[in-house]
Amino acid sequence: MSLPLDYSGNIENEEQAYIKMVYDYDWSSTVLGPIDSWDPALKNALNLCLHSAFPAYLCIYPDWISIYNRAWNPMFKSKSSCQQALGKPLKETWPEVYDVLNSQFESVRISGKGTFFDDFCYAGEHDGYAEDVFFKHGFSPVIQSDGSVCAIFFLGQETTQNVLSARRLKILNEFSRRISEVTSLENACQIITKVLSDNNADIPYALIYFVDHKSNSGSVKDANKIYDTYVELKRYHATYSFLKCDSWPISLLLKEGGHIKVLLKDDSQAVLLLTKISLREGQELSAILICGINPRCTLDEKYMEFLKLTLSHMNTFLLHAKTIEEEKMRSKVLADLNRQKVSFFQGLSHELKSMDLLSIK
User: Fold this and answer.
1) Tens-digit pLDDT profile for residues 255-302
2) Which GO terms fall under molecular function for this chain's record (predicted)?
């Protein structure tokens, strides 16, 4: 085995230990053969990969055998680690995205030209769940002495959270832009559901329910139903609890307030969120926003923060609509009073004229 010139044989940290493990790996057990037999271009690419501060890996032709650097570890999440994936074919490590990657690699291998992808979405799989993962990255060919491409060098970073934050911010900004269109509570709900349904990957569907507390609370559907079946779903290193139910637990939400995460019969997820607006004479109107959850995203704290901000915008819309309706009501009352006043004085004037005519006679 021959180590690169800049490699220190003094193993002082985990990164150096991993680099040593890569060079000590029994490559003769793979189609690549002993590392000493590799083309110099491939050895240099391997050295660059292992010492890169950015996530990087090599996929070596023909089986696309993978070598990852340690910066890649966070992107494995619960699937594996760079150590466990070392020396394994891409098809074995990432079967769910193999067809896409193989197509991209073959394009680079055949053309001999690198390519760049900006926020490209891959359908990854972790903990048994399909998940959209975004990357900003480039593929470069590793060209060996005979002029052929012997490997693909990947360098880039995961941008999933940036993509999610940007598309969620776009939805919230759309609320701010369209509040001037609100004319009534009904119209406000139409705008809200329109904003949430237009190409919104994070909220596949949205429903709004109103509960007028002037009515008998016993009339709320399933008011006496008991919801006590909770299911825990593990994603990465976190566990999330969902209420298993076959109907919307509206009565439970009215009782407990806040929000409820639910797991429906088809194992899809949704969140019920509650807000209230004050009506006349001390009455309250409860508004319930039901949001479907993208099955390819984890319902984590950032996702919940987005849903809560959405509810906050809905509350603003409803308060604005209530103010407009109250202004319309006041204007109508004033208009009615004015008509009554005009009618009264017109009647009074008519009577006075009649009395004047009688006195003249």
Assistant:
1) 999 999 999 999 999 999 999 988 766 678 899 999 999 999 999 999
2) kinase activity
Q: Which residues pair with 132 in a beta bridge?
A: 123
CATH no. for 14-158: 3.30.450.20
SS3 69: coil
pTM of the model: 0.80
State the Cα–Cα distance between residues 283 and 6, nearest whole angstrom: 75
For the chain, the structural domain boundaries read 14-158, 163-336
Q: Answer yes or no: same fold for 14-158 and 163-336.
A: yes
Q: Tell how strand 238-244 and strand 56-60 pair up.
A: unpaired
Strand ranges across the sheet with 269-278: 206-212, 284-292, 269-278, 259-263, 238-244, 230-235
Angle CA 85–302–126, to nearest 5? 25
pLDDT digits (tens, 9 = 90+) for 148-173: 999 999 998 889 999 999 999 999 99
User: Which distant-in-sequence residues (6+ apart) come within 8 Å of 200 by Cβ?
Assistant: 171
Rounded-to-integer distance, Cα 251 and Cα 269, Å? 19
Question: Is the domain defined by 163-336 classed in CATH 3.30.450.40?
Answer: yes
